[in-house]
Amino acid sequence: MSVLEGIPIDLQIVLGSTSIPIRQVLKMSRGAMIPLDCGQDDPTRLYVNDRLVAEGRILVNGEQMSLEITRVVQTER
């Protein structure tokens, strides 16, 4: 495994997305809410190098957040 340890990957955990004008972003202050295009029970998506690899749900334990994998996405070869 030591050969793999130095290989960088881009990991993204996506809760949802939205599109808002920059003027709205500039007017935001601490505590502002940004609505996303997903619901509370929708899965969170895990991307590795821009490829969807799994879905899951966010868990919060005190100050620590984690992603529980609920489904691994099958890729076509």
From TrEMBL:
Write down the superkingdom of origin: Bacteria
A GO molecular function held by the record: cytoskeletal motor activity
Record keyword Flavoprotein present: no
Membrane topology designation: Peripheral membrane protein
Among InterPro entries, the record links this protein to: FliN-like_C, FliN/MopA/SpaO, FliN_T3SS_HrcQb, SpoA-like_sf
What Gene3D superfamilies has UniProt attached to this entry? SpoA-like
| Pfam families in the record | FliMN_C
Where in this chain does the record put each Flagellar motor switch protein FliN-like C-terminal domain? 4-73
Per the record, its GO cellular-component terms are:
bacterial-type flagellum basal body; plasma membrane
Q: What is its main location?
A: membrane
**Coiled-coil residues:** none
Q: What is one GO biological process annotated to this record?
A: bacterial-type flagellum-dependent cell motility
Q: Recite the UniProt keywords alphabetically.
A: Cell membrane, Cell projection, Chemotaxis, Cilium, Flagellar rotation, Flagellum, Membrane
Tell me which SUPFAM superfamilies the record gives: Surface presentation of antigens (SPOA)
**Where is this protein found?**
Cell membrane
Task: Name the PANTHER family on file.
Answer: FLAGELLAR MOTOR SWITCH PROTEIN FLIN, PTHR43484
Q: Which family does it belong to?
A: Belongs to the FliN/MopA/SpaO family.
UniProt name for this protein: Flagellar motor switch protein FliN
